[in-house]
Amino acid sequence: MELLDGQLVSKTIKEGLKLKVGQLIAEGKKVPHLAAVLVGDNGASETYVGAKVKACAEIGYKSTLLRLEEDISESRLLGIIEELNNDIDVDGILVQLPLPKHISDEKVINTIHPSKDVDGFHPVNVGKMVQGLPTFISATPHGILLLLEHYKIDTKGKHAVVVGRSNIVGRPMSILLSSNTPTGNCTVTICHSHTRNLPEICREADIIVAALGKPGFVKADMVKKGAVIIDVGITRVPDAAKKSGFALKGDVKFDEVAPHSSYITPVPGGVGPMTIAALMKNTFMACEERSGGSLI
Ligand code: GUN
What we know:
The protein is α/β, with parallel strands linked by helices. The protein has helices spanning about 5-25, 45-60, 75-85, 105-110, 125-130, 140-150, 170-180, 200-205, 255, 270-290, and strands at about 1-5, 35-40, 60-70, 90-95, 160-165, 185-190, 205-210, 225-230, 235-240, 245-250, 260-265. The strands form three sheets. Strands 1-11-8-7-5-6 form a six-stranded parallel sheet. The chain has a three-stranded parallel sheet with strand order 3-2-4, with helices on both faces. A two-stranded antiparallel ribbon has the order 9-10.
């Protein structure tokens, strides 16, 4: 069993981006600028956005964090996004999800201009991703592909089982793994709450991507010997022994599954840091494109 060390790979990617930012500065060019929008005071969202802003600082990007009240109206939020769309200094816009119940995720995502949608959530960018066209690929699936690429994990012809069908992770992951690319060409099964015989299906998988948000859902008896295990789950579970009062738990029972696997991501330190690295790559690409690139 080998650990897929997202912390390490993310560090390498961020160092590469830092060098590229140094080149931009030496050439007198603009550095990438990410605007992050955080609505309300969800503790987990605070942590994630904080990590994204910190990564920008490490790499040398400019970042702006807009903290908005929980009770902000939907129309005011959409207005703020329009302002960011029109701000020529801003390259990428990220609105942290989930949003309060009175705000439609869909309207917010649709309002972000596709050229600044570094999360890759806008239907235009999702459509391009589905068609295999260059675009922003949403950060978590993108980060997972970067991890597979780094560890030279052969995906061609493999049976990948994706558990979870969210717009952010499961669905795009299933499409990307089946695409005709070096980190694709899998035969993909996507499982969800109505799937019958889920343990049997998982047992047939060469690669399992667990993205359902249920701590410890994937157990040893659901995993074939030598499978590659990607754990996207990161749920806060109360733990009095921790200073924070909670522990972070993945969707996979790591201790019992790890011995069965060939590769496995830890939680934390696996997919989480890769999500940030991918977002940073997307933000660099947004800046490049806005400075006259022609990729997207
Ligand atoms: N909430 C959970 N994951 C993500 C993500 O990748 N981007 C945004 N904006 N919100 C999230």
